[in-house]
Amino acid sequence: MPYKFYKTLYYNHSMRFYHSKKLTSFSNLTHAFTTKESRNLAFHVGDNQLSVEENHQNLANELLYNRDSLVHMKQIHSDLVHIVSGEDDFLNPPTCDALITDKTDTPLMVMVADCTPVLFYDDKQKVIAVAHAGRAGAFKNIVKNVIECFRDAFKSDSKDIYVSVGASIGVCCYEVGSDIFEEASKIGLSYAFEKRNNSYYLDINKILLNQLLECKIKKENIEIINECSCCNTQKYFSYRAEKNTGRFAGVLMIKK
Q1: How many angstroms separate the CA atoms of 208 and 239, rounded?
Q2: CA distances from residue 86 to 4, 68, 93, 149, 255 in whole angstroms, order as listed
Q3: Cα distance between residue 74 and residue 92, in whole Å
């Protein structure tokens, strides 16, 4: 299985997160996928704002970045990719579902609770990106838009881009209706479904992997963790399992 995701868990005080083996090999990067022990990082789920800010500060302290320079997103289940500008910061998140930059000391964050967090890095051009790829993002092929932005805005070559795909709801738990199957079939994605007991189960990672390969990302540059957030609610926030819940995240930064 060439797409196995090798992960290492690190324990730092009360924080718990895991790292991509491939991205860890680049000494100029700071990155992590957080878990529930990092606490909720989203401002829109009814949590106390000061508590969320404290959670962000704790994570920034652990990963050694300036919290106020973090760029996160108002995620809307779109295929919009935003090139980070000087106007973007912790208090002014852009409305989009992917971020890309070549700026140093500018951490990017994607938040999820069953959707897939995706981290991208081009080591040649020194460009990073993060994407929020749930069902809508996968159906709209947001990863293709991200790769095209690498090429068009930063002159990247697909063969130089590394991709790490974090934990998300798996095909084991992601039951959908026949209407979703029909919608997917119309755009050529029926291969990503399993039918069990007259119900349809969707494999988002299968779609993302296929889309990345179609974008000419090298097989050996792709890492996928096949951990289901819905099965592992002791470790991850899961909207499907818990409804009113927090968000875990993927974070990526180029160090100066």
Answers
A1: 20
A2: 37, 12, 12, 18, 17
A3: 9
pLDDT digits (tens, 9 = 90+) for 40-51: 898 888 889 999
Spatial CA neighbour of 118 closest among 93, 150, 142, 84: 142
> Looking at residues 129-157, what average pLDDT do you find?
98
Q: Which CATH class is domain 7-254?
A: alpha beta
Asked if 77 and 67 count as a contact pair (C-beta separation under 8 A), the reply is no
Question: Taken in order 154, 116, 213, 162, is the CA torsion positive or negative?
Answer: positive
pTM here is: 0.93
Amino acid at residue number 232: N
Of 12, 13, 23, which Cα lies nearest the Cα of 225?
23
